[in-house]
Amino acid sequence: MKVHLLLFLSLHLLQTPLIAKGDRRLIETTCKATPSYNLCMSTLLTNPKSSSGDISDLGLIMVGATKAKATRAIQQIKSFYKSRPELRHALNECTQMYVAVVRADVPSAIQALDGGQPKFAEDGMADTAVEAQACERSFSDRGQKSPLTKMNKDIENVANVARAIIRMLL
């Protein structure tokens, strides 16, 4: 009995690295086809679901990362209302844009991926990238320096990575 258990565990342990290596290969291959390999890899590898997912699952993970960043942007914008009242108008525009990302673009992308309609998911991520650019412009159009430049660029980049992964499903 002990021999059988030992043999089973040995075989299981020998197979596990091969499976993990195969999953990492999918992640690496997928990320190489995106505009930001490093961002893609770091985002996907920090999510345990990526090791057992297919390309659609990887897309969903990136869409989720986009939502998390947009949610953080909304929180950061709220903190600027008191400390930077002169930016109120641009901050209002950015809030509206990122609320649209969280409430419309991301849910529609998730629903489209879950429903096997990646084109609509791609559209949601394209809209998200445009919203991040528009947020940044809302400051420059008023001759103001944006306190959200890095965050806007991060959101644009993660949305473009998500979009590239989703395109692989078309």
The count of helical stretches stands at 6
Helical percent range?
over 70%
> Major β-sheet, in short?
none
Question: Which parts are unreliable, with pLDDT below 50 for 5 consecutive residues or more?
Answer: 2-20
Number of strands: 0
Tell me what you see in this structure:
Helices cover 81% and strands 0% of the residues. By secondary structure, it is mainly alpha-helical. Helix 1 runs antiparallel to helix 2 (37-45), helix 3 runs antiparallel to helix 4 (88-114) and helix 4 packs antiparallel against helix 5.
Brief characterization of the structure:
The chain has 170 residues and is mainly α.
Helices and strands, with pairings:
Blueprint: H1 2-32, H2 37-45, H3 55-83, H4 88-114, H5 118-140, H6 149-167
Helix pairs in contact: 1-2, 3-4, 3-6, 4-5, 5-6
Q: What brief labels describe this structure?
A:
mainly alpha, 81% helix, 0% strand, disordered N terminus
